[in-house]
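User: Can you fold this complex?
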Amino acid sequence: MSGKILLVGFGPGAEEHMSYRAKSAIAEADVVIGYTTYIKLVKELLDGKEVVKKGMTEEIDRCIEAYEQAKEGKTVALISSGDIGIYGMAGPTYEILLQAGWTPDSAIKVEIVPGSTALSTCASLVGAPLTHDFCSISLSDLLTPWTTIARRLDAVAESDFVVALYNPKSGRRTQQIVQAQQILLRYRDAATPVAIVKSAYRRRQAIQLVRLDEMADCDIGMLTTVLIGNSSTYIDQGLMITPRGYANKYANLSGEAKPGEQAGRSLSMGLEGWKACLRRYLNQNDLSWEKVADYFTVPVGEVLSAVSLGSEENTPCKSHTAHQVHPEKYQLAIEASQNWGRLRGVVRTGTGAVVELFLQGGSFVRRSEWLNIENDHFHLHINWGKVSTAYFAWRKDKSYGLHFLDIHGQLIFRVLLTKHEGEFDSAQLESYQKDCLALSIDKTQEQSDD
Ligand SMILES: C[S@@+](CC[C@H](N)C(=O)[O-])C[C@H]1O[C@@H](n2cnc3c(N)ncnc32)[C@H](O)[C@@H]1O
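Assistant: Here's the predicted assembly.
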C-alpha cells in the first residue's frame, strides 16, 4: 500500500498566515500528528481526522508514528509551527526514514510543505530588521554542544550579520541568553537595537524593542524569537530598520547615483572595483600594510593582492609594490634571503602580540613542517605547513620585505631588510629585487598563457 507523509509547516499560528497548501495538506490527511500545542493551534482543521498528540520531547516518536501509519497506506500530516524544515521535524523524519531503508522511489511518498518561519513572522511585527544579510542561531544546547553555539555566535557577531536567536531561553536554560549577549557585546555597540518578539501572531503576542545591553534582562521565554540588529540597524518611530544599502549608492533614496556609482552596476567597492579603490586610497595615504588592512577590515593578504593587481591601465599603486611569489618557490625565496644582510623578522599572533627579531637571512633550518631559527638569543619556530601565499612587497625607501601568509591571508611572518646608518645597502637591495624578479609569478606570462 502506498501511504504518504506530509511534513507541514503551518506558520506562526494564526490561520490567515497559514499557506494555502498547508491547509489543503491537512485537509488531505487521514492522520494528523503533532506536539500538543500545535494540534490546539490548528484544531479547526481537524474534524473527522485521527489526531495523535505528542509531548515536546517525543520528536522521534512523532517521526516513527508517521512512518508506521504511512506504511499502513494512510496519508499522514506531521505538523510543526513556522517552517517544518527550520529547526523542525523535516530533518529527523528523513533521518528515521533513511535509516529504515526508505528511498525517494519507495511506495511511501514524502512532501514538505514550507511555512513562514519565526524569524520572518517576528520581523514583520517590528519593521524591517532583516532587509540585509542575517543568520539564525538556536541557543538550545539540548542537542548541540555549547562550544559550537558560542563559536557560531562569535563568528556572526564579528561579521556584522543581523542575528535571529531561536530557542533563546526556557525554564531550565536561563544562562545561554546571558552568554550570547556577552559574546555579541565583544563586537557590537551596547545600543544596538534588539527586538524581542513573544508568541508572534498568537493570543499572547508581546513585543519589546530594547538595546543589546538590556537584552538578557528582558522577558524572554520558549516562544520568543530575538532579533539583533547589525551596525547599521536603527529604530525610528518604533520601527526597527536595517538599511538595504541604498545610501552606499544614492545621496537620497530616489535621487541620482553618487559620483563614481552607477545604477544597476556593482558598487565602486563591489567585487570588481574594491581592489582599485584600495589602491586609490593607498595613493592618497602612504600607510603601512597593517594600517590599510585595518582601515578596510581585511586581512593583510587582501591588501598585498590588491596592490599586486594594479597596472598602468588599472589604477597603478604608486607608493606600494607587491609581487606574489610563485607557489613552488617559497623555499627558494626564504633561502635567497641569505643575500639580503641583517633582517628584521616580524611574527604576529592572532591575539595581537607582535614579535620582532633581528636575524641573519639564510639562518632558517627546515625540519619537516617547521622552519626554525635557534640561536643563543631566541628560538623561532614557524609552521611552514600553514604558509599558503607569499609576496615580495615594498614601500619605496621605507621597507622591503618578504611576507608569508596563511590560507586566510593573515600574516604568519615576514622578513624585512634593515637600514644601516639610515640607508638600505644598495647591493643587498639589488639582490632582493633580482630575487623578486626571479621568484615571483610573472603576470605578463600568466596573461599570455590564458
Ligand atoms: C523548535 S523552534 C521551531 C521553529 C519553527 N519551525 C519555525 O520555523 O519558526 C522553536 C522556536 O521557534 C521560535 N518561535 C516559534 N514560533 C514562534 C512565535 N509564534 N513567536 C515567536 N517565536 C516563535 C522560538 O524561538 C522558539 O523557541
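The chain is about 30% helix and 25% strand. The first strand starts at residue 4 and ends at 9.
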